[in-house]
Amino acid sequence: MRRFFKECYSYISMICSHRQSGNVLFLILIAVALFAALAYSVTRSSSGGKSVSSEQAKTEVAALMQNLSLVEIAIQKSRVINSCGETEISFNGFPGHTYDSRDECEIFNLSSGGITLLVISSKIQKPAAECYSTTSVFNAGFDIDKTGKADLVFQINCVNDSICLAFNEMNGISGIPIESNGGVSSYAYFIGSYNPSPPANSINDDTLELQGRDRFCRYQTSTGLNQINYAFITR
After folding, report:
1. Full-model pTM
2. Cβ-contact 122, 161 below 8 angstroms
């Protein structure tokens, strides 16, 4: 666009230098054309906001997936290398998850080779005023793989639509599937134990697209909000 204006300006200057009494009407038409081009450029930039938002969502989700992958690797390391049982794992330091365990079993314990504390970007969720809950939780209350045992599933509540769509796209899911079960308040903080009686109506059995999935973003009819689910341990 800058090159376009430069060429137009040079052309007008050339005309003016050769025709001091130049064609005023022609110059006016050139000016109108320049103004139209400028208006188009501004309009294009403004309408590009949605695509930028979509790209930002993909960037945020890519960072989130990377952080969750680090947590997943740390969990596997604690279980395989450090021989931590599925109830010994600890997310001590993460809000609501105060549970002391052996150092080598604490995922966010840097002194024992753990990882830095998981922090959820503010861009992932909607403003608190629009949310029933903005809680992020390592939930040990649901059976995501239908074995009759509760699993360890990380959940992020009140997720932005663009983030939810990007998360699902990255995990091979189209759109935002609708689920009516597993309300936002139905969770059990993982603090060394699992729900002994997980509800039969799980968090991914209302839509065919989510059945058998262990990471997805769903729309909850009970709250009218989106929720990300990422399984770390299935039992």
Report:
1. 0.74
2. no
